[in-house]
Amino acid sequence: MSPSKINPAIAIQELLQQNPAHDNDDRLRESTDALRTIAEASKQAAEEKDPAQADAAEWKGKFEQPDKISGGKHDVVHCESAQNLDDQNDSKNQTNEHGMGSNEVLSRGESDSAHRAIQNQMTEKVLFELTWSSKGNDIVSCEMGNIKTAGRTSEQITLTWKSEPQTVLIITKPNSTPVLDLCEDIVSWLYMHKKKIYVEPRVQEELLSISSSFKFVKIWQDDLQKKVDLLITLGGDGTVLWAASLFQGPVPPLVSFSLGSLGFMTPFSRDGYKKQLESIIKCPTRITLRHRLQCQIVGDSAEEENATAKTIFVLNEVTIDRGQSPYLTNLKCYCDGEYVTSVQGDGLILSTTSGSTAYSLAAGGSMVHPQVPGILMTPICPHSLSFRPLILPEHVTIGVEVPAGSRSSAWLSFDGKGRKELKTGDQLICSMAPWPVPTVCLNGSTRDFMCSILEGLNWNLRKTQSSDAPPQPQP
Ligand SMILES: NC(=O)c1ccc[n+]([C@@H]2O[C@H](COP(=O)([O-])OP(=O)(O)OC[C@H]3O[C@@H](n4cnc5c(N)ncnc54)[C@H](O)[C@@H]3O)[C@@H](O)[C@H]2O)c1
Ligand SMILES: Nc1ncnc2c1ncn2[C@@H]1O[C@H](COP(=O)(O)OP(=O)(O)OP(=O)(O)O)[C@@H](O)[C@H]1O
Asked: Domain boundaries in the chain?
């Protein structure tokens, strides 16, 4: 018997009777289905009354659903929200110059089915809720056709574990004694707290060379991605980029300890690591969802080389430059399939907002708070006086092509690594990825960001003028 479409309360009752929950995930999926049924029922009932009420009911249904799932007051984002990701992908079905939808391009190879497969594997992890609240209000409402934003989408996000994280992966910068020292301390502390600990093979060797008692530390392998509850990095920003690159899908919450010189994405220091980890593991914690870009190379020569073109995720940026060529790059740029401009210069950076303080900044791009969902398009030494950097909205798909007749090919690099040639006629397709990197904040997303630009870059540092100003001439 199908669930009732008319009475929401009966619909829920029927669904729960038909499908007793087996575990948390099943229960959540059923709840989501039930709530979708409620939204439809409310809409249907409202349509019979009045079209304006129908709109209101639909919107209300959309924005009230997450509250009802969790029983929480203002939850907007849930870690298990697979439907959102699908919707997000569907909405990107636009056509580019090759006559392909952007989603279609990105799903060539394995990306789309891989996305689904990864979503289906998420059951082994400790679950948590994400709270996205704005002073007690929903992010957006629409009553009687009046659209109102009650809060900002860049509001602080909070992560609350449903039970303590159990499996921890520690990634460390190589060749550093202070890093190894801290790694030893953190591993011992986590072991005392009965956590399963994984490290890279190099680190296991280093720990065993210190003491054979470290044999409880296990070796990380790629197929363990779905088991990691918490990711810890010890190093600089490069180590955060490295750790994120190990997760070509969903990324667990990441705590980064600063042992480098700059540390824009590494707010924690080694002093007081025990208190900090204790608090992160046990209490609600503030996070920044750092968006990533998904990149794919398409075109005849790319296909010849690699029949299943892989999607590459970047946390900072993808760079298209002239490599060793002495010539200017000539790059045709497309936005949602429409030609917009050509870059003639040293190249182009497509950056996330997290990457806005890295290479893009050095090339003249603006600094953007990492929680702002945008894509930066920053030229490198353009041979034109008017090519100012752009920040585009998160939903666009950008294509960059080396056109036929160019003097040379171009070169790609992903977060400063993995150089690949972009041959004449090939296109790089780039859009916002569905899997951000959730980095744990020390003092909240905005304070951490302001601290990093003030301390890391000495932003707007200037001696204050003295008060003894010369007298102004009378008008
Ligand atoms: N001219 C430049 O500024 C330039 C040139 C090449 C690469 N890079 C950056 O280096 C990154 C790779 O970093 P790496 O550590 O592996 O290489 P790396 O060891 O060469 O260090 C590059 C520097 O960039 C800093 N950095 C990295 N990500 C940052 C971010 N999001 N905000 C502020 N600073 C950041 C690092 O702390 C480091 O000091 C690339 O993603 C690129 O953004 C910058
Ligand atoms: N686990 C790892 N395995 C291999 N390479 C790594 C690993 N962690 C970091 N790296 C690489 O080591 C390099 C330096 O790392 P990182 O930026 O963290 O340190 P740093 O250069 O001392 O920091 P900063 O740039 O802030 O001074 C980077 O290129 C990074 O990709």
From this structure: 3-79, 83-122, 128-156, 160-289, 293-435
